[in-house]
From TrEMBL:
Cellular component, GO annotation: cytosol
Protein name: Ribosome maturation factor RimP
Record key words, sorted: Cytoplasm, Ribosome biogenesis
Family: Belongs to the RimP family.
Ribosome maturation factor RimP N-terminal domain span: 9-74
Compartments reported by the entry: Cytoplasm
CDD domains: YlxS_C (cd01734)
Protein purpose: Required for maturation of 30S ribosomal subunits.
Annotated ranges, domain Ribosome maturation factor RimP C-terminal: 77-152
Ribosomal protein in keyword set: no
GO biological process, one term: translation
């Protein structure tokens, strides 16, 4: 699968989109998930699908159906680049750590870069989360401490800002 991921990443490199995931599913489905700053459009999906159809045919990649789509609002975070991007945006994320902290592995809060004493960012991330009403706690962790992570936006379908 790593070879398929690498091949797919190279094939779409010039299209201005970022590869999030490549997944083989039941009944010959090959699912490719892409993203870009500002969101993915239908045209992006069409362009990537056309490009990959050609490349996969030449490379003899077997599949029955190719599906190209966006990662959605709960986008998985897999690479260091993902964490840097969303820490800069101070996005709300759910992080599952490899080792428990205070008898917990899963934390949901605002992702940030840890700043050093001189104000520059470090290789460490911080996650600020609520423990009680009007009381927050912050944990620090390195990229290698993460088992799994995804965006965890707050959705409000009533149109009110929170």
């Amino acid at each position: 699968m790593t070879d398929l991921y690498t091949l797919t990443e190279q094939a779409i490199a010039g299209l201005g989109v970022e590869l999030v995931d490549v997944e083989r599913a039941a009944l010959g489905l090959l699912r490719v998930t892409i993203d870009r700053e500002g969101g993915v459009t239908i045209e992006d999906c069409e362009q990537v699908s056309r490009q990959l159809s050609r490349v996969f045919e030449v490379e003899n990649i077997e599949y029955k159906r190719l599906e190209v789509g966006s990662p959605g609002v709960d986008r998985p975070l897999r690479t260091r680049r993902d964490f840097d991007r969303f820490a800069a945006q101070q996005a709300r994320v759910e992080v599952k750590l490899r080792e428990p902290r205070d008898n917990r592995k899963v934390f949901t809060g605002i992702l940030r870069h840890k700043e050093s004493s001189d104000g520059t960012t470090t290789e460490t991330f911080c996650l600020e989360f609520d423990i009680k009403k009007n009381e927050t706690q912050t944990i620090e962790f390195a990229f290698d401490d993460i088992e799994k992570a995804k965006l965890d936006p707050v959705l409000d379908f009533k149109g009110k800002k929170r």
